[in-house]
Amino acid sequence: MLKQVNAVKKANIYFDGKVTSRTLIQADGSKVTLGFMLAGEYTFGTNEAELMTVLQGGMSVLLPGETAWRRIAEGEEFSVPKNSEFQVKVDKYVDYSCSYITE
């Protein structure tokens, strides 16, 4: 649960509008995004380490250094290291949250 957050009003829009998110800044300064992905295949880059949680729907993910795709279902999460790329395949849709992990 998120408490005492400030929302950045402007949406983050990627891949011709097929992926969108909103940034929330928590009281301690940490960032979380809440987003939605339509069906498709996407490659994302990270500047910070991330923890992604699937809230609704599901996706397959190919993480850095791995050769096998993983299926991530509703309620499951995965971590991505900073300064890396990962790929996702979305069959239908995904509602997700992404927490940015500062070291």
Q: Overview of this structure, please?
A:
The chain has 103 residues and is mostly beta strands. Helices cover 0% and strands 66% of the residues. It has a single domain, classed as Sandwich (Jelly Rolls), CATH 2.60.120.10. It has strands at 5-7, 12-14, 19-26, 31-45, 49-62, 70-73, 77-80, 85-101. Strands 1, 2, 3, 4, 5, 6, 7 and 8 form an eight-stranded antiparallel beta sheet that branches. Strand 2 and strand 3 (19-26) form a beta hairpin. The protein starts with a strand and ends with a strand. The mean pLDDT is 94.
Short synopsis of the structure:
The chain has no helices and eight strands. The chain has 103 residues and is mainly beta.
Labels describing this entry:
single chain, 103 residues, mainly beta, Jelly Rolls, eight-stranded antiparallel beta sheet, 8 strands, 0% helix
